[in-house]
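Hallway conversation turned thread

IA: we were arguing at lunch whether anyone had actually written out Tripartite tricarboxylate transporter permease end to end. Turns out nobody had. So, for the record, here is the sequence (504 residues) and right after it the structure tokens. Reply here if something looks off.
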Amino acid sequence: MTNFFLQALAEVGTPSVLGLIVIGVLFGIVGGSIPGFTVTMAILVVFPFTFAMDPVSGVSLMVGVFVGGYSGGIVSGVMLGIPGTPSSITTVYDGYPMAQKGEPGRALGIGVASSFLGTIISVAVLVFFGPLIASFSMNFRPWEITALIVFALTLVAGLSSGALLKGLMAAALGLLITTVGYDRNSNLRFDFGLPAMGSGFEILPVMIGIFAFSQLLGNIEKLKDEKSEAKKIDTNVTIPYGQILKDMAGQKLNTLRSSLIGSLVGALPGTGGTVANFLSYDQAKKFSRHPEEFGTGTPSGIVASEASNSAVAGGAFVPTLALGIPGDLPMAIMMGVLILHGITPGPMMFEQNPVLVGAIYASLLIGAVVMVLCNLLLVRWFAKISLIPQQILVPVVLMLCAIGAYALNNNLFDIWVLFIFGIIGYLLWKAEVPLTPLILGVVLGDNLERQLFRALELNESWMTFLTRPLSALFLALAVASILFSLYQDRKIQRLKNAALRENI
């Protein structure tokens, strides 16, 4: 392991790759600093620029955006009281009150330090558990991989709070999208007489359309209902380094616990930083000797929030690299980068591309250091960037999305794909249909079809899925996740009804 890591460090340590990591971190922080932009949006905008790069450079750039994006949300959260990303919602609970008390520099410093430590701890989790899981999954055959993908999709759909049926329908729609074009036996399917559809839909324009384009349309709609008022904030922030060191010294257990929660939650397909954010904040409050201080500007709340959402970075890489199952939406895009470069994430990646795996480790570590330096040195400018009005931001991002989709194959059809799926994504969003199961269905659909047909070619009996222990276990977990989600939905509905009756 030491040899390939040193080789990877040598490749990542070149001036060009280091420069890409710095650019990626800066863009990620900027994206995270702008309310409503999100980490996923930042990664989608950068994705097309990786086409002409070698795998190490492309992945390093994306890792930089990933690390910077999860930490960037703290800026607008502390300075404006508006979370820059969904994964920094709980940062506002204590970061903004601390800033209101006249200590914005202290709140930002604690958040940046927590993000750095969370990322480092999550890399340790990735380095330790990634190879172990990959080694174990080397024994997976087509039956196990098929069942695992089914479990991942049902788990993601089940996490769609209060919308299990909609989540399952979204996952099914994502799988259906991947059936357009030629199948593995060269049979043409669902081309609707359009030659351009014979090769199917490219993942990039579909993902940009479903998520980024639809979200931007939603932002345009909000502009009609909300009058944008620029908030006057003091950007002359001073970071009290001595006070921050003192604060962090008393948060060792909180930092470790929150980072581990973030890493473990990130490793679950489809969960991501938002779930880790609320879970770690809740646990920090329960374990605190002074829970009444949470929400008033306590360092414990900021540490719990920022350490957990940054730790998602390393944790989300575990299933992506070891199993070929994206941990969340940014990881689905990262998986697309690897596939475009001819690299298939999964157990064999650790054997066939060890240097690239090591490059990911090294990029995460270097990105964490760059993130700290950028945040501490440029915090005043990031605070100003967070005030960019949506009227300017939306058309610029839409243009970049269209250029990125076209640059994939220099094909105008991809622009139409982006536009059509953007409308579909917007309509689904309006209908409160979760988009995460849909996108993961698109990403995993080809592999699911390939593994399913391979399994049936080896043994025509469907009962084989139930007679093989691991595949039967994954299918049982898929059923269990659906049943548990139904139970949770009914429990939430009963509580709502009880509250409604009390109000009456």
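OS: looked through it. DSSP finds 21 helices and two strands in the chain.
IA: good, adding that to the notes. The longest helix spans residues 469-503.
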